[in-house]
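Page 47, continued from p. 46.
Same chain as before, 273 aa.
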Amino acid sequence: MKCEILVDPLMYKPGRDMLDAMYRSSPMLIVRNQRYLGQSDLLMVYGMGHVGRRPWIDKHLSSGRHMVGFDLGYWMRGGETDRAMRMTIDQDHPQAWLDDRPAERFDSSGVKLREDYDPNGPIVLVGLGPKTNTALAQPWLTWERDALKRIRAAYPRAEVIFRPKREDGTTLPGTSKMAGMPIEQVLKGASLVVCRHSNVAVDACIAGIPVVCWDGAASALYGNELAFPVRPTLEQRLRFLRNLAWFQWRPSEAAQCWQFLLSRIEERDRVAA
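Result:
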């Protein structure tokens, strides 16, 4: 097996650090390029929504070969070095790859589950970022306006807080905006989180807030029915997070990451054969 890693000098440093660590720890023949060559069995990238790299990802996957993608982690995202990165295989998010795994990775993370839910609290609507809007070929706030209509239909009297992906001065009429503060502060006392696929859904799981989402890792646990949001038990939340922790790695764990991802790919290929 041969792997191609796409790295460029302008790439976000934590992502480049992760790919550099995977390059140094690779157990197979590996090449590192700025542009896609397409001559390897496995493609490895950072930022699946990147406008320049996305066509290469799609081309590689359409050929029936595997892709491993990294992006900012689900938790423990801070720090100058050895920052946690989430991982996915063959898709933008890893929900289809989650299975029951040992608890050790999550239990050693120091992340503690909370119970910040308030049934009478506001609904948090999480916005999309520019890369997603570009990928969907839609104007800014298109998804958010539609989601707000559906929220109003299901909860006409609820307060809605808009949490944009990034602060750019725009507003969503009929909502109050909370940007620029820790997500834990936004979620405290919320009754529901509504998002398309955001990592905020995982933050909400940790905080004990029900979630409605259409994609992303948390869709393995939550549904997308606004009027009847899924409220998993503490045990279900913990099991989901323990399994998801196997799709989050640090550069210092690159060798273990390789071992895990290759075992999963081999297992999936064996079942498909």
